């Protein structure tokens, strides 16, 4: 089928669309674009209309960028946004990472440990796996952050994802880490076994929307070329299949496992030949923890802490040992818990000494022997 290049009028990304299509939906920002006719009696009116709407969008972008360079929404209620979803950051080396930590300052649902998670993950990647500092793109809502492109808005996270996959080649090692809130949404396209999409919550999700698993898959899973590897660490509630990968590892407490096929209906959840592997905080229907019990002082996400601690404690471990070690670390924690969704549950954990029920999950674009494959970034 013949196709041609067309630009999304909302975010500016260039997409390949079938030649006979006159209207298309952008796979990144989900905006609808009506393709301008090259000839015809109404082409002049079309051009005039879109010239006006383009100027109007430019005005809004000007408002959005007048935040004075400080954290948070400006006086107009907008977070600063890039003018398009084209990455404006340089790409460095064969090891690259996007690290997001969101506290949601000033909100009733604010978190304590997510920025600590992001800082610990960056230090871990640099000092344990040799990632260059310049190859790690950090997005946090730290009050000290002054770069509007480094605030984890929906736009900025999608831009960072595109940066992560830009010019990826065989042999590249990519990491996506997210620590923040996660949730579930009603699935609209029939590609989920349970009828629900998983989603992560950018700092501005109440205004701009969440990022659902289909979008994450489209941005950082499907473009992954042969010979490249992506690892995701998603420290959020309802994150079991947050990357919408093809297979989920079902492991019991004795360490026995099997792969569960997640390719429901006609869903294409694979890569472009590379391998994508995700460690997530809990099952899709469960919640994750923000706690000081693991570190003994500073609040952290249970997944991020147990992930780093297990890798440091067992050099050269396999994926299976990593998953079971993370679960054992969390399972043995009994005090100091703050459960994200439920103050009653957190009180029970704190005063009755109940163990954490959070069970980290492993999913992958391909089935493999988790005990024969050595974990390495």
TrEMBL record:
GO CC terms: cytoplasm
Pfam families: Peptidase_C14 (PF00656)
GO MF, one example: cysteine-type endopeptidase activity
Alphabetical list of InterPro entries matching this protein: Caspase-like_dom_sf (IPR029030), Metacaspase (IPR050452), Pept_C14_caspase (IPR011600)
Domain of life of the organism encoding this protein: Eukaryota
Domain (Peptidase C14 caspase): residue spans on this chain: 95-367
A GO BP entry: proteolysis
Family: Belongs to the peptidase C14B family.
UniProt name for this protein: Peptidase C14 caspase domain-containing protein
The species this protein was found in: Phaseolus vulgaris (Kidney bean)
UniProt lineage: Eukaryota, Viridiplantae, Streptophyta, Embryophyta, Tracheophyta
